[in-house]
Amino acid sequence: MNFLGLTNKNKTFKPKKNVPEGTKQYHLQKYAEATLGSGNLKIAVVLPEGEDINEWLAVNTYDFYNQINMLYGTITEFCTPQGCPLMSAGPNFEYLWVDNEKYKKPTKLSAPEYIDNLMEWVQNQLNDETLFPSKIGVPFPKNFQSSVNVIFKRLFRIYAHIYLSHFHAIIALGISVNRKKGITAFN
């Protein structure tokens, strides 16, 4: 058995991306974790009073990346190039990959290949200090919110694929409600 996708040759399961401890983002992440535990998602996603919207978006971007990474890691043995030859969300939505580097034109990929490219792309975005500064006092770039919007949109595609193509696996594996609630954060 391919436990959590850790032996997947495609390396789709990425190591958890952590927010640097002691930073403003770290404290906001702890706040987000505490409010998520309340069960009221509307409260959990509201910008805390007096906090910077970009810091809050950065923390939630790290968190969504980690949640999706963990969820996808649990079903990688069910999401294969043979079973999912196309990245889709049900019969009506097909996703093509473009990253303006390796794939300059929209390209059809199998779901695992698309997801592997997407997770690597997001990880590169999160590691980019000019986009996600980790040092105190370094401002976020002017295009930060539009960049985060693209990241969230693309990460949502993984949720959509999992729930529309692999919901049976989610049920069979008994994935906890806590993992399922990640989808509601996109509402």
Q: What's the β-strand tally?
A: 0
Instruction: List segments where confidence is low: pLDDT < 50 over at least 5 consecutive residues.
Output: 1-16, 177-181, 183-187
Second CATH tier, the architecture: Up-down Bundle
Helix content: 40-55%
Rg, rounded, reads 17 Å
Shape: globular
What is the count of DSSP helices, taking H or I runs of 4+ residues? 7
Q: How much strand content do the residues show?
A: under 5%
> What distance lies between the first and last C-alpha atoms, to the nearest angstrom?
34 Å
CATH C-level label: Mainly Alpha
CATH superfamily: MOB kinase activator
- Biggest sheet layout: none
Mean pLDDT: 80
Q: What is the CATH topology descriptor?
A: Butyryl-CoA Dehydrogenase, subunit A, domain 3
Describe the protein's architecture and organization.
The longest helix has 23 residues, at 53-75. With 187 residues, the chain is mainly α. Helix 3 runs antiparallel to helix 4 and helix 4 (111-127) packs antiparallel against helix 5. The chain has helices at residues 24-36, 41-44, 53-75, 111-127, 144-165, 167-173, 177-180. Helices cover 48% and strands 0% of the residues. The protein has a single domain (19-186), classed as MOB kinase activator (Butyryl-CoA Dehydrogenase, subunit A, domain 3, Up-down Bundle), CATH 1.20.140.30.
Keywords:
187 residues; mainly alpha; 7 helices; globular; disordered N terminus; MOB_kinase_act_sf; metal-binding; zinc; Mob1/phocein; MOB_kinase_act_fam
